[in-house]
Amino acid sequence: MVAKDSPVIIVGGGAWGLSTALHMTDAGYSNITVYERATQIPSPYSAAWDINKIVRAEYEDPFYTKLALVSNQITLPQFNEPSPLTEHL
Predict the structure, then answer these.
(1) Residue partners of 80: CB distance under 8 A and separation at least 6
(2) What confidence tens digit (pLDDT) does each residue in 80-89 have?
(3) According to the 3-state scheme, what is the secondary structure of the chain?
(4) Is 8 exposed, middle or buried (0-12, 13-18, 19+ CB in 10 A)?
(5) C-alpha angle 16/19/21, rounded to 5°?
């Protein structure tokens, strides 16, 4: 097991990288560095940046299916604007 004060490097400041850093911090790790080539958060290089989302709404338990569908109605409209990476296309 890694000591909680050991240096940890996370490459990428997208949804996965920042989530990993947050959860590690919550777990008591104190020496975490996130490397990201972008100068802003959220990172425009992240797979979670633009409208290209894969959203799962199929679950065995109907409760989670309904929860996912309701969540999509609330959160997905904010992603209808084009990514700065694809505006020139």
Answers:
(1) 51
(2) 555 555 554 4
(3) CCCCCCCEEEECCCHHHHHHHHHHHHCCCCCEEEECCCCCCCCCCCCCCCCCCCCCCCCCCHHHHHHHHHHHHHHHHHHCCCCCCCCCC
(4) middle
(5) 110
Domains of the chain: which residue ranges? 1-49, 51-80
For tokens 């109605």, the residue is 73
The length of the chain in residues reads: 89
pTM comes to 0.56
Instruction: Please tell me the predicted confidence (pLDDT) of residue 88.
Output: 47
pLDDT score at 4: 96
